[in-house]
Structure formats: structure tokens, C-alpha cells
Amino acid sequence: MRSPKAMFAGFVPVFALIPRAAMASGGGEAGDPLMDLIYQVGNFTLLIAVVFFVARKPVVAYFEGRREQIKNDLDQAAQLLGAAEDRQAEIQGRLRDLQTQLDEIQEISKQRAEEESERILAKAQEAAARIKSDALEATSQELLRARRELRAEAAGLAIELAGEILKEQVGDADRQRLLDEFITRVEPRSENQVRGA
Predict the structure, then answer these.
(1) pLDDT tens figures, 73-95
(2) Secondary structure (3-state) at 29
(3) What distance in Å separates the CA atoms of residue 115 and residue 142, rounded to the nearest whole number?
(4) What Rg do the C-alpha atoms of the chain give, in angstroms?
(5) Which residues contact 175 (CB under 8 A, 6 or more apart)?
(6) Distance between CA atoms of residues 61 and 48, nearest Å
(7) How many Cα neighbours within 13 Å face the side chain of 148?
(8) Residues 143-177 pLDDT 10s
(9) Angstrom distance (rounded) from CA 21 to CA 111
(10) How far is Cα 107 from Cα 113, in angstroms, rounded to an integer?
(11) Residues 2-17: pLDDT tens digits?
(12) How far apart are CA 189 and CA 72, in angstroms?
């Protein structure tokens, strides 16, 4: 690239033409249109050159700064993207682990529910068997009690009936004889019981 001095030296002839351009464009003389065009192009070129020399460094500095800022922004975006991808991979891993844990919890809950159901069913069967056994025992006891009561009542009725029959058929002499027989039978038994005691 050429140095600023060399570029400035190239524009010196253009500076020399500036007064002529001013004269040509300013006055009442009719000038050559081609020369007017050349002067206008020269003025525009001079303006561009001045703007280039004056504004070049700030513009270049601005664009370099902007380029650096964009580069930094892209680097930061790449870092953030990498961090986001890492975070997403971590979250996906946690979701897989969570789904696995959820499946395990559901399986354990199902097994526990089945075990609890079996335990409750076993307890219910035991309770039903116990109730049935208690009912059979109570029925058996009630039947025995009813038989005893019936026997006792039947015995009482038989004694009463026998007493009635005896009153009608047995006289005083028969009563005395039966009483004596009873006493003779009871006395040996009571003596045996006393000896055994």
C-alpha cells in the first residue's frame, strides 16, 4: 500500500485545478462543458480523498473494533452453545435416570400392592376360618347344652311321671320295701367313697 505522502503528492495537481474549477463554475462566461465536468469530477475526487485521509483511521478502527466485538460475541455464543448442549445432555441423562427410577418405583409399588393384597387375603381367610371354627364350637356347645337341658327335662318328667305312676300303683308296703332296698344299695357305695377319699 502506498504511503500517505505519496498519495498526497498525487493529489497536488488536483489542488492546482481547484481555482480554475471555481472560476469556471462561478461566472458569467460560458465555459466548456467538458471542462466543467472534469473540474466537478476533480472536486469530487478531492473531497473523497480528504474524507478518506481524515476519516480512514476512525472508520478502520471502528470496523476493526466491530470485527473484534463480533468475533468475541461469536466466541461467547459458541461457549454458551457448548454449555447449553452440555446442560441439555445432563438434563437428558437425568430424565433417563428419572424414568428408570419411576419404572423401578412403579414395579416396587406393584409388588408391594400384590404382597399386601395376598397378606390381607390370607388374614381374611384366617379370620373366616376362625369365625367358622368359633361358630362350629359355639353350635356344638349350644347343642350339648340343649341336649343336657332336654335330658334333664326328660329325666325330670320321667321322675315326675314315675312318681305319679308309683303313687297310683305302689302302696305303703311297697314304698317301705323300695326304701329299704335303696338304703342297702347306697350304704356300700358311700362307704367305698369314704375309703377311697
Answers:
(1) 999 999 999 999 999 999 998 88
(2) coil
(3) 40
(4) 68
(5) 166
(6) 19
(7) 6
(8) 888 888 888 887 777 777 777 776 777 677 777 78
(9) 103
(10) 10
(11) 555 455 555 555 555 5
(12) 127
